[in-house]
Write a structure and sequence with these properties.
Outer membrane protein beta-barrel domain-containing protein; signal; 205 residues
Length: 205
């Protein structure tokens, strides 16, 4: 997977901006949030080349986790959330580290009991595997949607409400890793996307 300097610079700038934005605003004008996402992750990937028949590449659903920071505010009548996410997933012979930033549009329940959200994501994925022994970073883009229910206040949260819910995130990755099988035949791994899903917990600071 070859990454151009231009893509790396653009990705880094957008991601740093998304992650640092929550800490650069006043908590009085909105809520600064932290949270975690736990569930599964699945790669859209194929093993190609003459040596593909001699390679077993595990890329099905595996356990994964993410940490996130965000800032919720409003512009006019529209509620939004700026989010930065760092997620990790590990298969039998592959690993990924995904760093993303984005802006979500929020649709709140009238009684404040919950919220539905959706928004774009952009960032980078660091992918490695044991078949080709390559470690590369690729530009990634996609979208996330989810729903959250507001619960009672968590311990030591200063009375701020805890939210729990579900999420689904898909990112598009255009990358290929090249290697050679033990019999000398070429074998490549082509990754085209990654899907994350599961439960999430958010807590205002």
């Amino acid at each position: 997977m070859h990454s151009s300097n231009r893509w790396q610079w653009l990705t880094g700038s957008l991601l740093i901006g998304a992650i640092l934005a929550p800490s650069s605003v006043s908590a009085a004008s909105g809520d600064v949030l932290v949270g975690t996402q736990l569930g599964g992750s699945s790669l859209a990937a194929d093993t190609e080349g003459p040596g593909a028949a001699f390679s077993s590449f595990d890329h099905g659903t595996t356990l994964s986790g993410s940490v996130l920071a965000g800032y919720e505010g409003s512009y006019g009548d529209r509620a939004y959330r700026i989010t930065g996410t760092l997620g990790h997933a590990k298969w039998d012979n592959a690993r990924s580290l995904e760093a993303l930033g984005g802006v979500d549009f929020l649709w709140r329940q009238a009684d404040g009991s919950g919220v539905v959200y959706a928004g774009p994501r952009v960032g980078a994925v660091r992918f490695s595997d044991d078949i080709t022994d390559d470690i590369n970073t690729e530009f990634a883009w996609g979208a996330e949607m989810g729903a959250l229910t507001t619960l009672g206040s968590a311990p030591s949260s200063n009375g701020r409400p805890l939210s729990v819910g579900l999420f689904l995130r898909h990112t598009v990755i255009d990358g290929r890793q090249s290697g050679v099988a033990s019999n000398g035949l070429e074998r490549d791994i082509r990754v085209s996307g990654q899907t994350w899903f599961g439960f999430q917990v958010l807590l205002p600071l």
